[in-house]
Amino acid sequence: MSTDASIIQKKPSSAWLFLSFLIAAVSIYGMYQVFLNGQEASYGISREVPWGILIIGYSFLVGISAGTAIIGSLAHVFKVNAFHVMSKRVALISLSALIGAFFIIFWELAGPYQLQTLRLLKYYTNFEITSPIWWMVTLYMIELPLLAIEVYFLVSKKHESAFFASLFGLFLGVIAYSTLAFVFASNATRPLWHSTSFSLFFIISAVTAGAAIVLMMIFVSGRGKILIDNVSALSKMLFLGLCLMFFVDTWNVFLNTYGAQSELDATMKLFIGKGPLAFNFYYLELGLGIIIPALLLVISGFKSPFLSALAGLFMIIGMFFARFDNIVGGQLLSRPDIHMNFTLHTYHVSNSELSIFIGGLGVALLIFFLGEKFIDLEEETH
Protein backbone atom coordinates (compact mmCIF):
# COMPACT_ATOMS: atom_id res chain seq x y z
CA MET A 1 0.00 0.00 0.00
CA SER A 2 1.28 3.42 -0.85
CA THR A 3 1.89 5.84 1.98
CA ASP A 4 4.32 8.27 0.39
CA ALA A 5 5.63 10.58 3.09
CA SER A 6 7.01 13.01 0.56
CA ILE A 7 3.64 14.77 0.47
CA ILE A 8 3.99 17.12 3.41
CA GLN A 9 0.75 18.32 4.85
CA LYS A 10 0.41 21.92 5.86
CA LYS A 11 -0.15 22.83 9.46
CA PRO A 12 -3.67 24.11 10.11
CA SER A 13 -3.97 27.85 9.91
CA SER A 14 -4.84 29.97 12.92
CA ALA A 15 -8.27 30.41 11.35
CA TRP A 16 -9.11 26.73 12.00
CA LEU A 17 -8.01 27.06 15.61
CA PHE A 18 -10.05 30.24 16.03
CA LEU A 19 -13.11 28.65 14.39
CA SER A 20 -12.93 25.57 16.64
CA PHE A 21 -12.54 27.86 19.64
CA LEU A 22 -15.66 29.78 18.62
CA ILE A 23 -17.61 26.52 18.25
CA ALA A 24 -16.46 25.42 21.70
CA ALA A 25 -17.42 28.84 23.10
CA VAL A 26 -21.04 28.28 22.03
CA SER A 27 -21.34 26.11 25.15
CA ILE A 28 -20.96 29.20 27.36
CA TYR A 29 -24.64 29.99 26.85
CA GLY A 30 -25.75 26.59 28.11
CA MET A 31 -23.30 26.61 31.01
CA TYR A 32 -24.51 30.08 32.05
CA GLN A 33 -28.13 28.91 31.99
CA VAL A 34 -27.28 25.90 34.17
CA PHE A 35 -25.44 28.13 36.64
CA LEU A 36 -28.31 30.61 36.65
CA ASN A 37 -31.39 28.37 36.56
CA GLY A 38 -30.23 24.80 37.16
CA GLN A 39 -30.61 21.81 34.88
CA GLU A 40 -34.33 21.21 35.32
CA ALA A 41 -35.21 24.64 33.95
CA SER A 42 -32.44 24.68 31.32
CA TYR A 43 -32.79 21.26 29.67
CA GLY A 44 -35.66 19.86 27.65
CA ILE A 45 -35.57 16.52 29.43
CA SER A 46 -38.29 15.36 31.82
CA ARG A 47 -39.09 12.53 34.22
CA GLU A 48 -40.54 10.56 31.31
CA VAL A 49 -37.67 11.35 28.88
CA PRO A 50 -34.63 11.79 31.13
CA TRP A 51 -31.94 11.26 28.47
CA GLY A 52 -31.70 13.88 25.76
CA ILE A 53 -29.24 15.29 23.26
CA LEU A 54 -26.36 15.45 25.76
CA ILE A 55 -26.45 11.67 26.24
CA ILE A 56 -26.86 11.35 22.48
CA GLY A 57 -23.86 13.62 21.88
CA TYR A 58 -21.80 11.68 24.41
CA SER A 59 -22.55 8.33 22.76
CA PHE A 60 -21.95 9.87 19.30
CA LEU A 61 -18.48 11.19 20.14
CA VAL A 62 -17.54 8.09 22.11
CA GLY A 63 -18.55 6.04 19.05
CA ILE A 64 -16.21 8.08 16.84
CA SER A 65 -13.47 7.64 19.43
CA ALA A 66 -13.99 3.86 19.56
CA GLY A 67 -14.19 3.54 15.77
CA THR A 68 -11.01 5.48 15.07
CA ALA A 69 -9.22 3.57 17.85
CA ILE A 70 -10.20 0.31 16.16
CA ILE A 71 -9.01 1.57 12.74
CA GLY A 72 -5.72 2.64 14.32
CA SER A 73 -5.26 -0.75 15.96
CA LEU A 74 -5.62 -2.46 12.59
CA ALA A 75 -2.42 -0.66 11.60
CA HIS A 76 -0.37 -0.94 14.78
CA VAL A 77 -1.54 -4.31 16.13
CA PHE A 78 -2.45 -6.28 13.02
CA LYS A 79 0.02 -4.53 10.68
CA VAL A 80 -2.55 -3.85 7.96
CA ASN A 81 -0.76 -1.26 5.85
CA ALA A 82 -3.97 0.06 4.31
CA PHE A 83 -4.99 1.40 7.70
CA HIS A 84 -1.60 2.78 8.69
CA VAL A 85 -2.15 5.94 6.67
CA MET A 86 -2.32 8.99 8.89
CA SER A 87 -2.34 6.74 11.97
CA LYS A 88 -1.02 9.47 14.27
CA ARG A 89 -3.89 11.72 13.29
CA VAL A 90 -6.34 8.84 13.72
CA ALA A 91 -5.09 8.30 17.27
CA LEU A 92 -5.33 12.04 17.94
CA ILE A 93 -8.94 12.09 16.69
CA SER A 94 -9.78 9.20 19.00
CA LEU A 95 -8.35 11.11 21.97
CA SER A 96 -9.97 14.42 20.96
CA ALA A 97 -13.41 12.87 20.47
CA LEU A 98 -13.25 11.22 23.90
CA ILE A 99 -12.32 14.52 25.58
CA GLY A 100 -15.24 16.21 23.81
CA ALA A 101 -17.54 13.42 25.00
CA PHE A 102 -16.35 13.86 28.59
CA PHE A 103 -17.07 17.59 28.36
CA ILE A 104 -20.66 16.87 27.32
CA ILE A 105 -21.29 14.16 29.91
CA PHE A 106 -19.99 16.39 32.70
CA TRP A 107 -22.79 18.87 32.06
CA GLU A 108 -25.30 16.06 31.64
CA LEU A 109 -24.52 14.40 34.97
CA ALA A 110 -25.27 17.34 37.22
CA GLY A 111 -23.21 20.39 36.46
CA PRO A 112 -20.95 22.24 38.88
CA TYR A 113 -23.28 22.40 41.85
CA GLN A 114 -22.97 18.72 42.68
CA LEU A 115 -19.24 18.75 43.45
CA GLN A 116 -18.49 16.08 40.89
CA THR A 117 -15.15 15.04 42.36
CA LEU A 118 -16.60 14.32 45.80
CA ARG A 119 -19.54 12.48 44.24
CA LEU A 120 -17.14 10.39 42.16
CA LEU A 121 -15.02 9.44 45.18
CA LYS A 122 -18.10 8.52 47.21
CA TYR A 123 -19.48 6.48 44.32
CA TYR A 124 -16.25 4.56 43.83
CA THR A 125 -15.71 3.74 47.48
CA ASN A 126 -18.94 1.75 47.24
CA PHE A 127 -17.59 -0.29 44.29
CA GLU A 128 -20.93 -0.82 42.60
CA ILE A 129 -19.52 -3.54 40.34
CA THR A 130 -22.98 -4.80 39.42
CA SER A 131 -23.76 -1.42 37.81
CA PRO A 132 -23.12 -1.15 34.03
CA ILE A 133 -22.56 2.60 34.46
CA TRP A 134 -19.85 1.93 37.07
CA TRP A 135 -18.00 -0.29 34.61
CA MET A 136 -18.47 2.13 31.73
CA VAL A 137 -17.03 5.04 33.72
CA THR A 138 -14.18 2.90 35.05
CA LEU A 139 -13.18 1.68 31.60
CA TYR A 140 -13.27 5.16 30.09
CA MET A 141 -11.24 6.58 32.96
CA ILE A 142 -8.55 4.09 31.93
CA GLU A 143 -9.10 4.58 28.20
CA LEU A 144 -8.54 8.36 28.23
CA PRO A 145 -4.95 8.38 29.59
CA LEU A 146 -4.18 5.26 27.53
CA LEU A 147 -5.10 7.09 24.31
CA ALA A 148 -2.91 10.03 25.37
CA ILE A 149 -0.02 7.63 26.01
CA GLU A 150 -0.55 6.00 22.61
CA VAL A 151 -0.38 9.39 20.85
CA TYR A 152 2.82 10.18 22.78
CA PHE A 153 4.46 6.88 21.78
CA LEU A 154 3.48 7.34 18.13
CA VAL A 155 4.81 10.89 17.97
CA SER A 156 8.00 9.79 19.78
CA LYS A 157 8.39 6.92 17.27
CA LYS A 158 8.49 4.35 20.07
CA HIS A 159 6.84 1.74 17.89
CA GLU A 160 7.05 -1.22 20.27
CA SER A 161 5.47 0.77 23.10
CA ALA A 162 2.87 2.14 20.67
CA PHE A 163 2.03 -1.47 19.72
CA PHE A 164 1.16 -2.40 23.30
CA ALA A 165 -0.68 0.88 23.93
CA SER A 166 -2.72 0.32 20.76
CA LEU A 167 -3.39 -3.31 21.73
CA PHE A 168 -4.73 -2.37 25.15
CA GLY A 169 -6.55 0.58 23.61
CA LEU A 170 -8.30 -1.76 21.16
CA PHE A 171 -9.36 -4.09 23.96
CA LEU A 172 -10.55 -1.32 26.27
CA GLY A 173 -12.20 0.66 23.46
CA VAL A 174 -14.37 -2.23 22.32
CA ILE A 175 -15.24 -3.33 25.86
CA ALA A 176 -15.96 0.24 27.06
CA TYR A 177 -18.16 1.08 24.08
CA SER A 178 -20.07 -2.19 24.29
CA THR A 179 -20.53 -1.48 28.01
CA LEU A 180 -22.05 1.89 27.08
CA ALA A 181 -24.48 0.02 24.83
CA PHE A 182 -25.17 -2.36 27.73
CA VAL A 183 -26.16 0.62 29.90
CA PHE A 184 -29.11 1.04 27.53
CA ALA A 185 -29.72 -2.62 26.68
CA SER A 186 -29.87 -3.73 30.32
CA ASN A 187 -33.00 -1.62 30.86
CA ALA A 188 -35.82 -4.15 30.51
CA THR A 189 -38.47 -1.42 30.74
CA ARG A 190 -37.30 -0.02 27.38
CA PRO A 191 -38.08 -2.74 24.80
CA LEU A 192 -36.33 -0.93 21.95
CA TRP A 193 -33.05 -1.05 23.86
CA HIS A 194 -33.44 -4.45 25.53
CA SER A 195 -31.95 -6.58 22.76
CA THR A 196 -28.59 -7.88 21.61
CA SER A 197 -29.00 -6.12 18.23
CA PHE A 198 -28.92 -2.74 19.99
CA SER A 199 -25.40 -3.35 21.30
CA LEU A 200 -24.35 -4.92 18.00
CA PHE A 201 -25.53 -1.88 16.05
CA PHE A 202 -23.45 0.38 18.32
CA ILE A 203 -20.24 -1.53 17.55
CA ILE A 204 -20.88 -1.88 13.79
CA SER A 205 -21.67 1.82 13.39
CA ALA A 206 -18.59 2.80 15.41
CA VAL A 207 -16.20 0.81 13.19
CA THR A 208 -17.94 2.16 10.08
CA ALA A 209 -17.59 5.70 11.43
CA GLY A 210 -13.87 5.10 11.94
CA ALA A 211 -13.43 4.24 8.26
CA ALA A 212 -15.55 7.27 7.29
CA ILE A 213 -13.44 9.65 9.38
CA VAL A 214 -10.15 8.41 7.88
CA LEU A 215 -11.53 8.74 4.34
CA MET A 216 -12.53 12.32 5.08
CA MET A 217 -9.06 13.03 6.46
CA ILE A 218 -7.37 11.63 3.36
CA PHE A 219 -9.45 13.82 1.06
CA VAL A 220 -9.03 17.00 3.11
CA SER A 221 -5.27 16.42 3.26
CA GLY A 222 -5.09 16.38 -0.54
CA ARG A 223 -3.36 12.98 -0.59
CA GLY A 224 -6.23 10.98 -2.11
CA LYS A 225 -4.53 10.31 -5.47
CA ILE A 226 -1.29 9.29 -3.79
CA LEU A 227 -3.11 6.98 -1.36
CA ILE A 228 -5.58 5.50 -3.84
CA ASP A 229 -5.00 1.92 -2.60
CA ASN A 230 -5.75 3.03 0.93
CA VAL A 231 -8.88 4.85 -0.24
CA SER A 232 -10.05 1.66 -1.95
CA ALA A 233 -9.52 -0.53 1.13
CA LEU A 234 -11.20 1.95 3.48
CA SER A 235 -14.09 2.50 1.05
CA LYS A 236 -14.78 -1.23 0.90
CA MET A 237 -14.71 -1.39 4.69
CA LEU A 238 -17.13 1.55 4.84
CA PHE A 239 -19.43 -0.15 2.33
CA LEU A 240 -19.42 -3.40 4.31
CA GLY A 241 -20.29 -1.49 7.48
CA LEU A 242 -23.16 0.30 5.74
CA CYS A 243 -24.55 -3.02 4.48
CA LEU A 244 -24.41 -4.50 7.98
CA MET A 245 -26.12 -1.43 9.46
CA PHE A 246 -28.89 -1.67 6.85
CA PHE A 247 -29.25 -5.39 7.58
CA VAL A 248 -29.67 -4.80 11.33
CA ASP A 249 -32.09 -1.90 10.81
CA THR A 250 -34.22 -3.88 8.36
CA TRP A 251 -34.49 -6.95 10.57
CA ASN A 252 -35.28 -4.80 13.59
CA VAL A 253 -38.29 -3.37 11.76
CA PHE A 254 -39.51 -6.79 10.61
CA LEU A 255 -39.01 -8.58 13.91
CA ASN A 256 -40.31 -5.81 16.15
CA THR A 257 -43.49 -5.31 14.13
CA TYR A 258 -44.19 -9.03 13.70
CA GLY A 259 -46.05 -9.33 17.01
CA ALA A 260 -49.09 -7.11 16.50
CA GLN A 261 -50.25 -5.10 19.53
CA SER A 262 -47.00 -5.80 21.36
CA GLU A 263 -44.97 -3.12 23.12
CA LEU A 264 -42.21 -3.45 20.52
CA ASP A 265 -44.73 -3.06 17.72
CA ALA A 266 -46.04 0.15 19.28
CA THR A 267 -42.49 1.45 19.72
CA MET A 268 -41.54 0.73 16.10
CA LYS A 269 -44.57 2.67 14.90
CA LEU A 270 -42.74 5.76 16.14
CA PHE A 271 -40.27 5.20 13.27
CA ILE A 272 -42.48 4.01 10.41
CA GLY A 273 -45.61 5.27 8.73
CA LYS A 274 -46.46 8.70 10.12
CA GLY A 275 -44.66 8.26 13.44
CA PRO A 276 -42.96 11.27 15.07
CA LEU A 277 -39.51 9.89 14.23
CA ALA A 278 -40.38 8.58 10.75
CA PHE A 279 -38.70 11.46 8.90
CA ASN A 280 -35.48 10.96 10.85
CA PHE A 281 -35.55 7.21 10.32
CA TYR A 282 -36.43 7.14 6.60
CA TYR A 283 -34.60 10.17 5.26
CA LEU A 284 -31.74 10.92 7.66
CA GLU A 285 -30.78 7.57 9.23
CA LEU A 286 -31.50 5.21 6.30
CA GLY A 287 -31.47 7.55 3.30
CA LEU A 288 -28.72 10.05 4.05
CA GLY A 289 -26.74 7.83 6.44
CA ILE A 290 -26.77 4.45 4.67
CA ILE A 291 -28.33 4.26 1.19
CA ILE A 292 -26.83 7.40 -0.39
CA PRO A 293 -23.29 6.70 0.94
CA ALA A 294 -23.48 3.11 -0.31
CA LEU A 295 -24.57 4.28 -3.77
CA LEU A 296 -21.79 6.87 -3.89
CA LEU A 297 -19.21 4.19 -3.09
CA VAL A 298 -20.56 1.84 -5.77
CA ILE A 299 -20.66 4.63 -8.37
CA SER A 300 -17.07 5.58 -7.53
CA GLY A 301 -15.85 2.00 -7.87
CA PHE A 302 -14.36 2.46 -4.38
CA LYS A 303 -11.58 4.59 -5.87
CA SER A 304 -12.75 8.20 -5.75
CA PRO A 305 -11.28 10.14 -2.79
CA PHE A 306 -13.97 12.82 -3.12
CA LEU A 307 -16.99 10.51 -3.38
CA SER A 308 -15.65 8.25 -0.63
CA ALA A 309 -15.11 11.25 1.66
CA LEU A 310 -18.59 12.55 0.82
CA ALA A 311 -20.02 9.11 1.60
CA GLY A 312 -18.15 9.18 4.91
CA LEU A 313 -19.55 12.62 5.77
CA PHE A 314 -23.11 11.50 5.05
CA MET A 315 -22.57 8.36 7.11
CA ILE A 316 -21.39 10.39 10.12
CA ILE A 317 -24.46 12.64 9.91
CA GLY A 318 -26.72 9.62 9.60
CA MET A 319 -25.01 7.98 12.56
CA PHE A 320 -25.90 10.97 14.74
CA PHE A 321 -29.57 10.72 13.80
CA ALA A 322 -29.46 6.96 14.35
CA ARG A 323 -28.28 7.65 17.91
CA PHE A 324 -30.99 10.28 18.31
CA ASP A 325 -33.72 7.93 17.07
CA ASN A 326 -32.58 4.99 19.17
CA ILE A 327 -32.08 6.86 22.43
CA VAL A 328 -35.05 9.23 22.25
CA GLY A 329 -37.33 6.69 20.58
CA GLY A 330 -36.73 4.23 23.38
CA GLN A 331 -38.19 6.68 25.89
CA LEU A 332 -41.22 8.19 24.15
CA LEU A 333 -43.71 5.47 25.15
CA SER A 334 -44.64 4.60 28.71
CA ARG A 335 -45.31 0.97 29.52
CA PRO A 336 -48.95 0.13 28.78
CA ASP A 337 -51.70 -0.79 31.22
CA ILE A 338 -53.54 -4.10 31.06
CA HIS A 339 -55.55 -2.78 28.10
CA MET A 340 -52.37 -1.98 26.14
CA ASN A 341 -52.97 1.77 26.31
CA PHE A 342 -49.69 3.58 25.70
CA THR A 343 -48.79 7.10 26.73
CA LEU A 344 -46.81 9.07 24.13
CA HIS A 345 -44.34 11.61 25.49
CA THR A 346 -42.42 14.33 23.68
CA TYR A 347 -38.89 15.65 23.78
CA HIS A 348 -37.71 18.98 22.41
CA VAL A 349 -34.06 19.97 22.50
CA SER A 350 -33.57 23.15 24.54
CA ASN A 351 -31.23 25.92 23.47
CA SER A 352 -29.06 25.22 26.52
CA GLU A 353 -28.66 21.54 25.62
CA LEU A 354 -27.96 22.37 21.99
CA SER A 355 -25.29 24.91 22.91
CA ILE A 356 -23.47 22.45 25.18
CA PHE A 357 -23.66 19.72 22.53
CA ILE A 358 -22.24 22.06 19.86
CA GLY A 359 -19.62 23.20 22.36
CA GLY A 360 -18.60 19.57 22.95
CA LEU A 361 -18.01 19.15 19.22
CA GLY A 362 -15.97 22.34 19.33
CA VAL A 363 -13.87 21.05 22.23
CA ALA A 364 -13.06 17.91 20.24
CA LEU A 365 -12.11 19.98 17.18
CA LEU A 366 -10.04 22.39 19.27
CA ILE A 367 -8.02 19.57 20.85
CA PHE A 368 -7.41 18.04 17.41
CA PHE A 369 -6.30 21.30 15.76
CA LEU A 370 -4.04 22.14 18.70
CA GLY A 371 -2.38 18.76 18.19
CA GLU A 372 -2.11 19.40 14.45
CA LYS A 373 -0.52 22.77 15.14
CA PHE A 374 2.05 21.83 17.74
CA ILE A 375 2.76 18.10 17.27
CA ASP A 376 4.62 16.40 14.44
CA LEU A 377 1.96 14.09 12.97
CA GLU A 378 3.67 13.26 9.68
CA GLU A 379 3.92 9.55 8.91
CA GLU A 380 7.07 7.67 8.06
CA THR A 381 7.35 5.81 4.77
CA HIS A 382 6.04 2.24 5.03
Any chance you could write out the topology, listing elements then pairs?
Layout lengths: L13 H12 L1 H11 L1 H4 L10 H24 L10 H23 L6 H10 L6 H24 L3 H27 L10 H26 L6 H31 L4 H6 L9 H23 L4 H25 L3 E2 L8 E2 L6 H24 L8
Antiparallel strand pairs: 1-2
Structure overview:
This protein has 382 residues and is mainly α. It has helices spanning 14-25, 27-37, 39-42, 53-76, 87-109, 116-125, 132-155, 159-185, 196-221, 228-258, 263-268, 278-300, 305-329, 351-374; strands at 333-334, 343-344. It has 2 domains: 15-186 and 350-377, Formate dehydrogenase/DMSO reductase fold (Up-down Bundle); 223-347, no CATH class. The chain is built from 14 helices and 2 strands. The chain has a two-stranded antiparallel sheet. A hairpin with an 8-residue loop joins strand 1 (333-334) and strand 2. Helix 8 (159-185) packs across helix 9, helix 9 runs antiparallel to helix 10 (228-258) and helix 9 (196-221) packs antiparallel against helix 13. It is globular and about 65 Å long. It starts with 13 loop residues before the first helix and ends in an 8-residue tail after the last helix. The model is unreliable at 1-8 (pLDDT under 50).
Short description:
71% of the residues lie in helices and 1% in strands.
Terminal-residue CA separation: 8 Å
Strand percentage, roughly?
A: under 5%
The shape, in one word, is: globular
Q: What class, by secondary structure content?
A: mainly alpha
CATH topology of the largest domain: Formate dehydrogenase/DMSO reductase fold
Q: Give a short account of the largest sheet.
A: 2 strands, antiparallel
| Helical content band | over 70%
Low-confidence stretches: 1-8
Strand order of the largest sheet: 1-2
Counted by DSSP, the helix tally is: 14
CATH architectural category of the largest domain: Up-down Bundle
Counting structural domains, the number is: 2
What is the radius of gyration?
21 Å
Topology order in helix (H) and strand (E) letters: HHHHHHHHHHHHHEEH
What value does the average pLDDT take?
85
> CATH class of the largest domain, anyone?
Mainly Alpha
Please count the beta strands (DSSP E, at least 2 residues each): 2
